[in-house]
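Researcher: I'm comparing several assemblies side by side, and this is the next one on my list. It has 1144 residues spread over four chains. Same procedure as the others: predict the full complex and return the structure.
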Amino acid sequence: MRFKLGCSLAYEIKAPTTFIFNVEVAHLKSLAIHSETLTLSPDLKREVYVTPDLKNRYLGVNAGIGPFSVEYNAEVELAVVRADPETIRETPVAELPIDILPFLLPSRFVSSDRLTPFALAEFGHLPKGHKRVNAICNWIHDNIAYQRGASDGETTADESLLKRAGVCRDFAHIGTAFCRALGIPARFVSCYAYGLVPRDFHAVFEAYLDGRWWLFDATRQAHLDGLVRIGIGRDAAEIAFATPFGEMEPTGMEIRIDRADGGPEPTERTIDAISTEEPAPHAGAV
Amino acid sequence: MRFKLGCSLAYEIKAPTTFIFNVEVAHLKSLAIHSETLTLSPDLKREVYVTPDLKNRYLGVNAGIGPFSVEYNAEVELAVVRADPETIRETPVAELPIDILPFLLPSRFVSSDRLTPFALAEFGHLPKGHKRVNAICNWIHDNIAYQRGASDGETTADESLLKRAGVCRDFAHIGTAFCRALGIPARFVSCYAYGLVPRDFHAVFEAYLDGRWWLFDATRQAHLDGLVRIGIGRDAAEIAFATPFGEMEPTGMEIRIDRADGGPEPTERTIDAISTEEPAPHAGAV
Amino acid sequence: MRFKLGCSLAYEIKAPTTFIFNVEVAHLKSLAIHSETLTLSPDLKREVYVTPDLKNRYLGVNAGIGPFSVEYNAEVELAVVRADPETIRETPVAELPIDILPFLLPSRFVSSDRLTPFALAEFGHLPKGHKRVNAICNWIHDNIAYQRGASDGETTADESLLKRAGVCRDFAHIGTAFCRALGIPARFVSCYAYGLVPRDFHAVFEAYLDGRWWLFDATRQAHLDGLVRIGIGRDAAEIAFATPFGEMEPTGMEIRIDRADGGPEPTERTIDAISTEEPAPHAGAV
Amino acid sequence: MRFKLGCSLAYEIKAPTTFIFNVEVAHLKSLAIHSETLTLSPDLKREVYVTPDLKNRYLGVNAGIGPFSVEYNAEVELAVVRADPETIRETPVAELPIDILPFLLPSRFVSSDRLTPFALAEFGHLPKGHKRVNAICNWIHDNIAYQRGASDGETTADESLLKRAGVCRDFAHIGTAFCRALGIPARFVSCYAYGLVPRDFHAVFEAYLDGRWWLFDATRQAHLDGLVRIGIGRDAAEIAFATPFGEMEPTGMEIRIDRADGGPEPTERTIDAISTEEPAPHAGAV
């Protein structure tokens, strides 16, 4: 599908503030960027950085006192890979590429080590494969209430599980944690999400199954084949859309994503397994 | 200084086990590797992976049932950079290279977000620079008891702070957390440590000050200019010397580091500021 | 049923130690004490204290260096009240005697405030009454593994729930927490437990329903009509069988309970609702 | 000193609500109640309960939909015992009355077990006695920021310590926790506090030293000899001024305490040790 997407972020800077933004779509083979603009007002000097492993695009700006805004617009074509979930098996740890293994480790908000007994008890006995991760998403959807204000920037997956409530960030953290606890590599994904109401940045997760990364959204609030990746991280700590160091107040925020190819919003959500990243070349065996 | 160093790790494998090892010294300009051997018994197929950003060297092995061992030996020359601590200022966040900024974020065991009020109250008013991080190390050394068994693999910096006890891993986590909480990038370092008694893998941390990474060891148990880096991570989760997936029992472990140039053990420890990594080239400004 | 019961506790005192013991059976109308002896070796001065509200019998002893032991034996007749679980409704908070209300509050190990969302999600919709508390016990029995070593003296109900494992103390804490979270007063009970294998002090809980306290044992390891009460507390902190202040080592421990009326061990466990305490006289309305 | 004191509490009841209030001054020998009225509007049926051990006065009311208010006024004479802090020693555990010992145990918000290493490290070496508890209060006053909104109803002493911030409830919890961790019995006290600005219910703590309970206020915000006790508890959970079960909104709250004897507010705060409770008769030795 072809999308027009973007965001408008506005701030009132109270004291000089360094921002790291991560709002530009990722550079992926599956994602053709037909046009793209990013405007700063005022037009400050930009530092750009693309992480060598995950290809996240970070933008650093030092903003002075006064109003400051970021306007990002892109038109992109997303070509997803579809598969029958039944055909996707889990990859045994012994066969995992070594560069995938860090995504089995716990991270700040993905306390997979603390959730191992819980994950084993609920999901350890289920048939392995894409359908097991889907069962995890169903469990989260059925057992965790989507509730604004239920979490803050320090909330971890185990805390969300006890609170039985959270937002997309927390749903993704819990899903990621359960996967890692079961030996399935998993990572946090920020994205523009087609179909999400109300419009906002969205967080989902990917699990590594059968040789590639597959997308999962335990909130069930957007089209799985309409998730346009911004960043990839161990968890939300790494890919906030804006990380400010200084003193400022957000004064406006708008996120956009629409069909650019005239196609209507699908009436039903896909039940295919969806992937947007090419299978990674394995690290070399010697 | 020139060192002969290495380790011998032995296991009894009970069920097929995938290991990720991180025991080889890092590839650094300051660290000349004169010779190096790594022997597996039995001689299994190896998968190697060097992280593109931090240059950690990981080794993956699938071991079958029975005895299994790793023997690593290297002879290296470490050329450290020395400086007068008084001359090393802190780098304002606005001047930090963007690729350094992730080391301001909290991670699984470095709960810097939870420790911010504590760090500000204890160290917020101190003169900035290398000496502030040194004051943090002094505080840790004076207030945290070095005590085997005080922590386990899930212990976080805030928990260690309440327990007032830990091992080198925990000392490094607390130091890293306090630095990040104060806006000083910091990262966890595993190493061979000259002078450490009893001999073991050691954990210290680096803080980014005045344009480069400087070494700190809050345990004060080894020579700061005798720390030969193995790996760099956000925290201990990322650079365990061995991460096994399977069922096995460790049956032996020996770590070695000795002067190879005939020089005697220094009677006193250096009070210079010590760095072993070249200043990183900045990510590009546009 | 009539029981012979008791315990033998032995210690090696390394430095003068003050003990508080709570091993004597409670003074209850339903529990006739036919004979009872408590022997200290050496025969130290005893301080006795019965809590005015709950009637727990505490015994204080200051023991000097050397061996020290406690031997307790009693022959008792326990007359339980039985009822059909279907007939026991929950008491609305508005009808609860005011002296019962503290048992709705969270306590050190019964973190009912943290477990409220979990309790509401799992049990909030169930039919109210004795059968809801029984459903809680079934859930605990089915979802928490009985596992020695899974907890220590600082483990709370929310931690046990995440670990999915515990011992009788933890099963009772979780059950108590879920009840309080649902507005059902609940309290922790230590007891001699007929049928428990291996023999040990046991921990269960009572819920206040339909005007009186009813016994529940989520471990399902003893006869509900063979639980001879020692103490009642908000949680385990209050009624440890021995609380030592000093330096000592336990050197022996034996707990006993046998039928004293020649009756055989029942082949099946009762499915009646069981209570051993008279309905409390209400605090006075004015 | 003689005081006129009281409170006015107003609520809008949305659904039938059971309230437990604990706002009436305690029945103490040192506290003569010259007059006292408690008015409910509407004038609902009251259930009263005085705890047999601590003599807290609870009032239970079932309020229906609509406005509801409580008005309490009393005129009391408080006769405190004063002593030179230097003369007050700590009571060895072996000499503590057995009914005092529960105040050495951890409770929901007083996580003294978790704070033991911290307490020992900071205060373990200090001279024992009233002055050690005073040193604890000084430490709390100097190291914890008094900050509205820094805590909520689930915040524990260890959490407040990490946050380095709290309100009177948290200051009292930390003080209580440090005392218990050091083997000094301590309990939470709610009170009307002469000199407190702005006027509010206040929370302080008592430590058991040299045979009686002594008052401590780590916030240093009120006159220690002007604290008129309402309730005593293990921690805040037990003696909230209002515990509602139902659905309501607070619509007004006013707390009052003034000199009734014409005396002026003292210009300086007392530095005497202050106690308001008679030494308890010991539980009987046998």
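Model: For your comparison table: The first helix of chain A runs from residue 116 to 123.
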